[in-house]
Write a structure and sequence with these properties.
Number of domains: 3
Low-confidence stretches: none
Order of helices and strands: HHHEEHEHEEEHEEEEHEHEEH
CATH class of the largest domain: Alpha Beta
CATH architecture of the largest domain: 3-Layer(aba) Sandwich
Number of strands: 13
Mean pLDDT: 88
Largest sheet: 9 strands, mixed
Strand content: 15-25%
Helix content: 40-55%
Number of helices: 9
Length: 298
Amino acid sequence: MDRLHSMAVFIKVVDCGSLATASEQLNMSSQMAGKHVAFLENRLGTRLLNRTTRKQSLTEIGTLFYERCKIVLAEAEAAESIAYELSATPRGRLRINAPVTFGAYSLAPLITRYLREYPQVHVDLTLNDRFVDLIDEGYEAVIRLGALKDSSLIARSLAPYRLIACASPQYLSARGLPLVPEDLTTHECLGFTYWSNPPERGWHFTKDGQLHAVQVNGRLQVNDATALLSAALNDGGIILGAEVVLKNYLASGQLVQVLAGYEAPSRQMHILFAAHRRPTPKLRSFIDFVVAEFGHQN
């Protein structure tokens, strides 16, 4: 007989209080249920149950064995569950939320590679810059920029979201090249406006451990990074934007980095998911994909 199966029958017999009731729930004969208990007793060389025509009770050894059997079977079920999940093929629909600029320029290309890797997964990606409630709005994972507030969600840290300052060569030729952050006060600084916050007038730079906080000015405030980029490319002023968005324009010469000797601010970035249940294969594979791509670089 299978030892784990006999343990399961033994637990059921104890829980039900009789062989007859246990055998009914297990869909086996009372004789077969009794054989499983007898198998364990013969294997252990001791009696586990005291049985009379009216009732049954656990022996002292039977009580200890009963408690250990429950632990062993629970661990066996957990091991099988983990093995199944690890071997299961990711499939189904995955709802993800991310900030607009990061999602459009960085996350969307990664998702196309992820979908090639896992052809049975479908991804619904929603991009916006507002705070979304993962649980209430039905997302399985969200990517957030900035410091995290206290949360019941599980967070995996990603590499910081780096910003750089740049402008078009024509703008700099006409207005001059800022040499220190304080020079920005005489320039048109293109401002990004969040849906829930006023324009970011304070730009911060560091050099040699010293913080330079500058209150910038600008007549154009936009809530869309693509529109800000278009304004910068058309000589509208200095943009403080995501490096991942601006790097190709810097490489082509359409934009020129300013204050390159200073470190522009960066924002914390995390991928978050609910803590109340074990991640499904599709979610776990997606999180691993994101962390492998955007995790901290040593």
